[in-house]
Amino acid sequence: MAGLHKSEFTNPVINWVDSRLPIFTMMQKEYGVFPTPKNFNYFWNFGALAMVNLMIMIVTGIFLAMNYTPHVSMAFDSVERIMRDVNFGWLLRYVHANGASMFFIVTYIHIFRGLYYGSYKAPRELLWIIGVVILLLMMATAFMGYVLPWGQMSYWGATVITNLFSAIPLVGDSIVTWLWGGFSVDNPTLNRFFSLHYLLPFVLVGVVFLHVAALHVTGSNNPLGIEVKGPQDTLPFHPYYTVKDSVGMCVYLLVFAVLVFFAPDFFSAPDNYIPANPLVTPAEIVPEWYFLPFYAILRSVPNKLGGVVMMFGAIAVLFVLPWLDTSPVRSCKFRPIYRQFLFLLVISCIVLGMVGAHRPEGIWVVLGRVCTAYYFLHFLVILPILGKLERPLPLPESISRPVIAGGGGPLPGGAAAKPMEKV
Amino acid sequence: MADSMTATAPGSHGGAHAGQEVTKRDFLKLVAGAGAAVGVGAMAWPVIDSMNPSKDVLALSSIDVDLTPIQAGQAITAVWRGKPVFVRHRTPEEIKAAESVPLSQLIDPQADKARVKPGHDQWLVVVGICTHLGCVPIGNKPSDNRGEFGGWFCPCHGSQYDTSGRVRHGPAPANLAVPPYAFETDTKIKIG
Fold this sequence. Notes:
The structure holds 2 protein chains of 2 kinds.
Chain A: H1 12-20, H2 23-32, E1 35-37, H3 46-65, H4 75-84, H5 89-116, H6 125-147, H7 152-163, H8 172-180, H9 187-218, E2 234-236, H10 237-262, H11 292-300, H12 304-319, H13 321-324, H14 336-357, H15 363-389, H16 400-403
Helix pairs in contact in A: 3-5, 3-9, 4-5, 5-6, 5-10, 6-7, 6-9, 11-12, 11-14, 11-15, 14-15
Chain B: H1 2-8, H2 24-49, H3 55-58, E1 63-66, E2 75-80, E3 83-89, H4 92-100, E4 123-127, E5 150-153, E6 160-162, E7 167-169, E8 181-185, E9 188-191
Antiparallel strand pairs in B: 1-9, 2-3, 3-4, 5-6, 6-7, 8-9
Family (chain B): Belongs to the Rieske iron-sulfur protein family.
Enzyme class (chain B): translocase
Main location (chain B): membrane
């Protein structure tokens, strides 16, 4: 099959490459002229922000790895050396450490966007499921990265989390021994965590590619949650959304910079500046903030296996969310009752986060149980029933109608504009 | 994409469609696929098993613990296989408390007699790892918070153990484990 791709690029070098490997044509198609709903709000920035964040993590991580030693007797000191002696080591490490927090902030908002505007509904179920896989990979990567500095919280966090698997009946203990490569968290554990912490981000890149590929098949959802009816409802991705994403990026980088330069330890536990000691458990073990709601669910169940099952169930339920929500209407804009329940869900997640940060005593136990119950009720009971009972508000006919008063002429620069007859 | 798929689908030399005859080529594909699966599977086990404890880790090290410096009411922490082991010199009241509890009140019923060596009631040797999620409980020093049952208290999730190292208050599901050990003399034990 002789034959080159017929490239439309005029630059001879680009044309030569593009004829043989049409990556320029692909980029132009997927990111240049890609038709994107014209009514995005700033919530639609967060996917791009997450992608940028992943790149920042990979770049800083690669350079940190050049100075890190994955050995129990040297890991802590090598991190301190990065902080004190390596040129700009402090910057790399603080960007990487706070980058993890930024990544979760951005991703949680991105997930909330999906929940609020019903982005998980048909035909975007697989897109959503791939997103949940990304979340799981992120959590595993973040957890293993947190172990690497080999401070007290690193060590005991690793111990507690790996011990979760001992709750599995019959084979639990063998699995934990296998995970550790020994009889406690030790050098083999640190080595494999380092190996996997380096590997998983690249797996993430692959899964993110699938996430974006699936998105470009179905096209983006939008704040109205109705399908694009034609070219009059869309804008080319570039320059309209490259610019809008850039605005969001500036705000994101501003917040990031404030964290890195003015409060680099804002999210971290002081105990992690104590070298790991396998014989002394810190008085209070608290995971990183982004795991607190799940940690709270774990502790709210007074049974080891039950707690672990509920904690993993909190994520697992997201996989089947597209089938739990029975309402055909996507956007919360037209689901006044569901919107209130969704805000209750957000509040219960935030309260769970607070519960996870406190000792399981008194009011915190009660709050933890109430919010855990609501979390599961929301997904397993309220969503399926509400979809059938709720009367949604009338949906607009098209995206253009509410955006342009009088109902949507063609795009500027699109099909030849006919003067509008009606106002 | 969609165009190329519809273009190749009808003319594809793929496997037998429903109702069609099974050809020699289908058989060859199946055998080749199965062979590859066996090969990958055979390589998967060494890779997975390499993550299990290595021989040097497994080489079961044993340690000797001298009991003479441990005062009644106190416990020390020895390290065995990278884990803390509590060696506790129990007072007569603690022994009595441990022995007098009816088994029906226990989460993981086990008699105190089964957890100590005969004739050495005062010595309790347990792995100092909470059976919930692996924290090290507090309570070796009499001044520590030992919980309601006078044994150990886990700071992570609030489990409590009695003077026999048995769990009395959740979320831990099981008693502190008793490692293999033997008395070499009355004042020296060998763990492991």
